[in-house]
Structure formats: structure tokens, C-alpha cells
Amino acid sequence: MLLGSATTEGPAVRVGDDALDREGLESAAAAVAARIRGAGAVAVHGEASLGTVVAVVGGLLAGVPVVPVPADSGPGERRHIVRDSGAELWLGRFQEGADLPTVPVDPAERSSLTPPNRRPRPPR
Fold it and tell me: Is residue 59 classed as helix, strand or coil in its secondary structure?
């Protein structure tokens, strides 16, 4: 399923059967960035999903360091990584051991926030 606007460019990112075009990725990530801007660091469950991609790009847009937590980590390891990293927020679905405020990430969410310093696309 391709989320975002109908374009002939194709997806900017694909994870399994799910994909986002460039506009969809930027807009979903901007929605995350607006909610986390100013955080010292955020953590995200490092699974292969559009939600993870949107969370990481949102962190980059907000200028916030993103700590990927391995998808196969257990609660104790997650707790250790989160504590040592200084992460203040958990992006995505709640995971046991990630004892932080949780910020939901929805790849279908859109924001009108324009990413700062966006470079124009080169002509094709």
C-alpha cells in the first residue's frame, strides 16, 4: 500500500508491502518532529516498519538524536539502553522496559509543517 499523494515517482521508502512516497514521508515525519522538537534524545523500537522510518526521519527533522533499540531486545535490555542513552521519549508503540513517555507514530498522519532548510529537488 502506497501512502501519500498519487505520483508517478514511486515510493521514497518501502518496507515489505508498505510504502510512502516522498511527500507522505516528509509530512508524516514532520508530524513526529513537531511533537518531539526540543527533546534531548528519543528512542525507537528498531523493527523493520514504516513507523520506524517515520520516527527516525522525524527525529532528524527535529534535530533530536534518535536511539534505535534492537527489535529483539528484551525488557531488561531496553531499560538499560534507554537509561544509558539519555532518551526522554519513546517513539511508537509502548514496549515493556521502555519506561518513558510514549509518542505515537502513524505513517498515515500528515502535518503541514515545512521541514527547515529543505533543498530543492534536482531536475530529472
Answer: helix
Q: Please tell me the predicted confidence (pLDDT) of residue 121.
A: 55
The Cα 78–Cα 59 span in angstroms is 19
Residue 3 lies in a domain: no
- Average pLDDT of span 30-46: 97
Q: How many domains does the chain contain in total?
A: 1
Q: How far is CA 62 from CA 5, 38, 40, in A?
A: 23, 8, 11
Cβ atoms 56, 41 nearer than 8 A: no
Q: How far apart (Å, rounded) are the C-alpha atoms in residues 46 and 62? A: 19
**108 vs 120: CA distance, rounded Å:** 24
Q: What is the pTM of this model?
A: 0.84
Tell me if 43 is assigned to some domain.
yes
Q: 110 in a domain, yes or no?
A: no
Is residue 27 in a domain? yes
**10 close to 41: Cβ distance less than 8 angstroms:** no
